[in-house]
Amino acid sequence: MSAKPKPQSTEIDHIRNTLAxxxxxxxxxxxxxxxxxxxQDKRLxxQSKEISExxxxQSKEISKxxxxQDKRLxxQDKRLxxQSKEISExxxxQDKRLxxQDKRLxxQxSDIAAIKEMLQALLSRQ
Length: 126
Known about the structure:
This protein is an all-alpha fold. It has one helix at residues 9-125. The longest helix is centred in the middle third of the chain and has 117 residues, at 9-125. The chain has 1 helix and no strands.
């Protein structure tokens, strides 16, 4: 059986120093990773806030535009209602005029018939 030779103290020191360096390096890398994660979280929070603010602003603008459109449509409805009322009134006035004309024509027809009767009566006397 062959016995493994014991490493010398300088070799052990070297291995220990190397392991210590690796552990320190891993610790630093882990710390840097946490810093990067924190930075990413902050960036994502900021982006989320900016997107939310933009969304809110756009929502307000869209709502304002819809309100303006609603007002315009309401005004057009009022105008159309007014025009419809005016047209109805004109038709009613026109109907009244036509009825008056019909009455006048009927009266004139009656007057003409009466005049004809009077003329016939006068002519028949002679």
